Amino acid sequence: MSEANLPFIGAILLTVVGGAAVLTWFERRLLGIWQDRYGPNRLGPFGILQVAADMLKLLTKHDWIPPFADRFVFVIAPTAIVISMLMAFAVVPFGPDHYLIDMNVGLLFFLAMSSLAVYSVMLGGLASNNKYALLGGLRAAAQMVSYEVFMGLSLMGVVMLSGSFSLVDIVEAQQDGWYFIPQFLGLYVFIIAGIAESHRLPFDLPEAEHELTAGFHTEYGGMKFTMFMLGEYCGLILLSCMITTLFFGGWLGPFFPPLVWFALKTFGFVCFFILLRAAIPRPRYDQLMALGWTVMLPITLINLVATGAIALWMNQA
Amino acid sequence: MTLALFYIAGAIALAATGIALTRVNAIHALIYLVVSLLAVAFIFFLLGAPFAAVLEIVIYAGAIMVLFVFVIMMLNLGNRGTVVEQEMMNPSVWIIPSLLCLILLIELSLSIASLKSETNPIVVSAKEIGISLFGPYVLAVEIASMLLLAGLVAANHIGRRLSKMDQEKDEG
């Protein structure tokens, strides 16, 4: 990394954090349309200034730490998710020349960062010293550790086909065909595991508001709550970027410049995840865990063995 | 530059481990231990082993430590754990382990001092690790897989018995 990259780092951070902020408004508008209502439409054109209003409210709220909470952990917890999610963007290739670092273990770096994000939710739940928060944290820990396994395994088919962990190499290996066709099982598992990992609806069991008040962030408010939300939305953008990169050819595409293609595809997946939130009800917690270990794990293993066999066969022919 | 980064990361790892050892609150100790693991991962990265570095984060910091936190949450001892830990912080408990560690440290420093220092580390790629794992070290991989299988069978057994007991309780 050279110093010349500093403006680029700034641009990525601004885009992601700004994108996450706008997404809070965009999600509510889109949900509104799908549910036959308006959503926030009063402030500014199409209600977009709602973002600024929400920011002002959240950032100026009294920054309160409950007296019964574990101060040290309570303050540290919300930062982990934001830092790890933003770090993961370092390896995302936005275009053929637009990436910060082309690590030869880029894909694993992404998995490592998303596994560190678990701490935020767990420690937040534990430090709050509140039974609902603790239950939310427990659920988050079990859910995210389980789905991490399938998430990692589901991507190994892509690694086998491209022969590299480097995300730039993976995109370039998709010149002849995007991986969502040969790796449809991998894509299926990765999408579901990704939602479980970013604990968004329909898999937001750690914060299920109808049974756990607000789950792990029950005691959080103001800035610290904003950090949790920011991390969650950054995670959503990161997940969309990764699906684009790994399964839909990244920046590849005709006519438009690479960056435009990348942005378009990522935007499409963000909309898809919002649609999932509008369309699918939340499963029960035991159903979620059973789905993971009895359906997702066998599917990923079958995908892994089949891909390996076909790759070997193709190499011999 | 690399040397400075190495020493900073090493100092962070040492300091974090030291703090982790002396905490009375288990969660605080775990957080420092995670910091120490991250610092060690960074050292691996500097030494030209990015694959080992990332695996250190994924497996140790991201999975094993998470399970530790999970167990602490399940037990949820609260302040009782801290009180017990405080009693354990008695200096007399530390004498023999510290002595043994000191001997190990002296041995380690002597053996490191006799090594020829390598200034330009070779970057080991994931592919080379795979080739050596399934080449000369295939026996170790197989043994590890058997160990994991045994763990899996045991976990399945324990899980089964509990669920059957639950059923009987529900019926009875």
Shape of chain A: globular
Individual helix count of chain A? 12
Largest sheet of chain A: none
Radius of gyration of chain B, CA atoms, in whole angstroms = 21 Å
Q: Low-confidence parts of chain A, pLDDT < 50 over ≥5 residues?
A: none
Quote the CATH topology of the largest domain in chain B.
Answer: Four Helix Bundle (Hemerythrin (Met), subunit A)
**Class of the largest domain in chain B, according to the CATH hierarchy?**
Mainly Alpha
| Assembly form of the protein | heterodimer
Categorize the overall geometry of chain B.
globular
Q: Which sequence of SSEs, written as H and E, runs from N to C of chain A?
A: HHHHHHHHHHHH
Portion in beta strands of chain A: under 5%
Arithmetic mean of pLDDT of chain B: 83
Structural class of chain B: mainly alpha
Brief summary of the model shown:
With 317 residues, chain A is mostly helical.
What does this structure look like?
- The complex is a heterodimer of chains A (317) and B (172).
- With 317 residues, chain A is mainly alpha-helical.
- Chain A has one domain (70-316).
- In chain A, 68% of the residues lie in helices and 0% in strands.
- Chain A is built from twelve helices and no strands.
- Chain A has helices spanning 6-34, 50-60, 71-88, 106-116, 118-127, 131-162, 167-172, 184-197, 209-212, 222-247, 258-279, 285-316.
- In chain A, helix 1 (6-34) runs parallel beside helix 11 (258-279) and helix 2 crosses helix 10 (222-247).
- Chain A is globular, with a radius of gyration of 20 Å.
- Chain A starts with 5 loop residues before the first helix and ends with a helix.
- With 172 residues, chain B is mostly helical.
- Chain B has two domains: 2-122, Four Helix Bundle (Hemerythrin (Met), subunit A) (Up-down Bundle); 124-172.
- Chain B is built from seven helices and no strands.
- In chain B, helix 1 (2-22) packs antiparallel against helix 2 and helix 2 packs antiparallel against helix 3 (50-75).
- The longest helix of chain B has 34 residues, at 138-171.
- The N and C termini of chain B lie far apart (70 Å).
- The model of chain B has no long low-confidence stretch (mean pLDDT 83).
- Classes of the chains: A mainly alpha (317), B mainly alpha (172).
- The A-B interface holds A 70, 72-73, 76, 103-105, 108-109, 111-112, 115-116, 118-119, 122-123, 125-127, 129, 134, 137-138, 141-142, 144-145, 148, 152, 165 and B 25, 27-28, 31, 34, 50-51, 53-55, 57-58, 61-63, 66-67, 69-70, 72-74, 76, 78, 123, 125-126.
